[in-house]
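User: Could you go from structure to sequence for me? I need the amino acid at each position, not a summary. Structure tokens:
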């Protein structure tokens, strides 16, 4: 099975940047709302990006249950792909960190390709994602995640376009830039390291080097 972050991800994320810009153009800018949205986006990135996608899915053992289904929905709101694809790439990254088998090592493929999700296609060892492959639900989500995300956007827009422009889009943008910055800065020299500067924007992931070196 190949795991690759395709251009669909980048296209969706770029669209959400445009969504925020259009929202500001049509509805205007309010500094108080902007502060609230910024910190809400930070907490979203911590909860969904780190706690759910990273630890629960990528570093956990997947099981079909109500909690997993709910977390899958949250993951689909990020425009970063399915839990299966994210977990496959992340587990491959940990197993072969900063080698040619690492899907997103800036030392190997360059920082720009890592930052903008133009990762290397890799053949993932099925054993790395055997827990996901056993789930018909996750395989279905993996196949249709892009369509499901568009449905989520459409439903929110029908309720109120501002839900997309000022809530969903900023959440996605913050998660994207935070994760990309960590992936680049923490592996830029060809080995995992902590990035103290990032503690102000992502106190949960600035110690990326410690995370790689931790042996449970």
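Assistant: Here is the amino acid at each position, in order:
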């Amino acid at each position: 099975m190949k795991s690759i972050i395709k251009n669909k991800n980048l296209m969706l994320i770029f669209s959400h940047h445009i969504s925020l810009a259009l929202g500001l153009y049509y509805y205007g800018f309010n500094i108080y709302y902007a502060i609230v949205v910024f910190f809400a986006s930070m907490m979203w990135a911590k909860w969904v990006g780190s706690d759910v996608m990273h630890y629960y899915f990528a570093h956990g053992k997947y099981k079909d249950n109500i909690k997993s289904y709910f977390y899958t929905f949250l993951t689909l709101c990020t425009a970063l792909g399915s839990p299966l694809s994210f977990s496959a790439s992340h587990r491959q990254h940990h197993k072969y960190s900063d080698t040619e088998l690492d899907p997103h090592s800036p030392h190997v493929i360059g920082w720009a390709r890592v930052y903008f999700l133009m990762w290397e296609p890799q053949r993932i060892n099925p054993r790395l994602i055997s827990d996901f492959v056993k789930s018909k639900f996750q395989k279905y989500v993996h196949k249709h995640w892009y369509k499901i995300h568009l449905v989520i956007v459409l439903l929110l827009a029908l309720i109120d376009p501002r839900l997309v422009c000022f809530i969903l889009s900023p959440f996605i943008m913050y998660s994207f830039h935070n994760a990309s910055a960590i992936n680049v800065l923490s592996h830029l020299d060809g080995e995992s390291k902590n990035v103290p500067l990032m503690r102000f924007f992502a106190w949960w992931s600035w110690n990326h080097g410690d995370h790689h070196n931790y042996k449970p």
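One structural detail worth keeping in mind: The first strand starts at residue 2 and ends at 3.
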